Amino acid sequence: MRKKRVLLLSEGFGSGHTQAAYALAVGLKQLSPSIQTRVIELGKFLNPVLGPWIVSAYRKTVTKQPKLVGMMYRTNYNKSLNRFTQLALHRIFYTQTSQVISQLKPDLIVCTHPGPNAVVARLKRLGLDVPLYTLITDYDAHGTWTNPEVNKYLVSTPIVKRKLMERGIAAGRIEVTGIPVHPNFWHTFDKEDVQRQFNLKPMPTVMVMGGGWGLMEEDELVDHMTTWRDKVQLIFCVGSNEKAREQLLANPMYQHPNIRVLGFTREVNKLMDASDLLVTKPGGMTCTEGMSKGIPMLFYKPIPGQEEENCEYFVRSGFGELLQSKETIDKWFSLIGEPYASGQFRRTLLTKRNQQYNPTKCPSAVLQLMQ
After folding, report:
1. Do 76 and 144 touch, CB atoms closer than 8 A?
2. Where is the signal peptide (predicted)?
3. 283-305: b or e for each residue (b if 16 or more CB lie within 10 Å)?
């Protein structure tokens, strides 16, 4: 009997969409080793020159004009992509999508970005007979995610399910699965072992993420964190942004034995287990990874739009606080310096996580729906 095949289509507008696709793919393989999965950033795959250029332009807009991004998000909030826009996307950007699907012969397509989602929906309208699942990778439901041809929506919370139902989508087409995280985040690693692996000191530790797009450069709040370097160990993760890493390393404020500046790493899951506090941009994926680890979070300058919605959800749920001032930093850095209070708070978050989130639920739900 032929092995089941799942095609996961994403785009590189922020790392979260593709991370969610890979997390689901690996989770499916973990639970059902016989299944075959393929993750494709469709625009980059079909247009290796134009695709990365568009992503780069988007990145510059996010970093230089975040209010414009927020205005566009709000203006189109209740609008799905109309048929003319879907046709334009297909003709200009996704011309060969049907050929890719014909060659790979998937039993199921999961889209983690609205672009491929709209194009596959159009192909289904024209006769494609493959189930389409839409995995919404934020804690909000923007209209561009929605299409009548979607067979099932996989969403983060009951709140997102309600928002989709308010758009007229039947409850039976929506399943609350949570956003998938890589199986590396399903388990807790021993804190002392991780400290030894990364040459970290056994002291209160803060992990700072979000520098990959240069969003934390020359910021007084980030600089204020370094004034705690004698009492708190700081791990700055800047991803593949080598320029940001070099700038931090050249800054005298960051040249201290208790400050580590890391580039790209595949072991964020372990570093979260070694840390007592996470400072991050409130992207849907990073926040979900933090929740899966039960680590308290400070949310840094949400980009207007979906990051604001993500931030609001996690603050309201008690997993963190919006980073608004130096006083916020001082309060939390003082808290993690008190072992009993810090440990008690983290145990509370783990209890909340167990009530609200199961990292295996999304891949398990997809497998069940495929039967």
Report:
1. yes
2. none
3. bbbbbbbbbbbbbbbbbbbbbbb
Instruction: Write the DSSP symbol of residue 284.
Output: H
Q: List the structure tokens of 350.
A: 């783990």
The boundaries of the domain holding residue 60 are 5-180
Supply the DSSP symbol for 317: T
Angle, vertex CA 140, rays to CA 329 and CA 20, nearest 5: 85
Residue at which a domain ends, from 180, 206, 239: 180
Structural domains counted in the chain: 2
Report CA torsion sign: 304, 309, 311, 312: positive
Structural element, H or E, at residue 323: strand 320-323
Residues 6 or more apart whose Cβ sits within 8 Å of residue 318: 348, 349, 352
**335-353 pLDDT, tens per residue?**
999 988 898 999 999 999 9
**Residue located via tokens 């609350």:** 176
Same domain, 232 and 158: no
DSSP state of 151: S
**Cβ contact 155:136 at 8 Å:** yes
Convert the pLDDT of each residue in 281-306 to its tens digit. Answer: 898 999 999 999 999 999 988 888 88
Tokens 């400050």 -> residue: 259
Instruction: For the chain, state the CA radius of gyration.
Output: 21
Is residue 199 located within the same domain as residue 152?
no
More confident residue, 210 or 167: 167
Single residue among 164, 180, 196 that ends a domain in this structure: 180
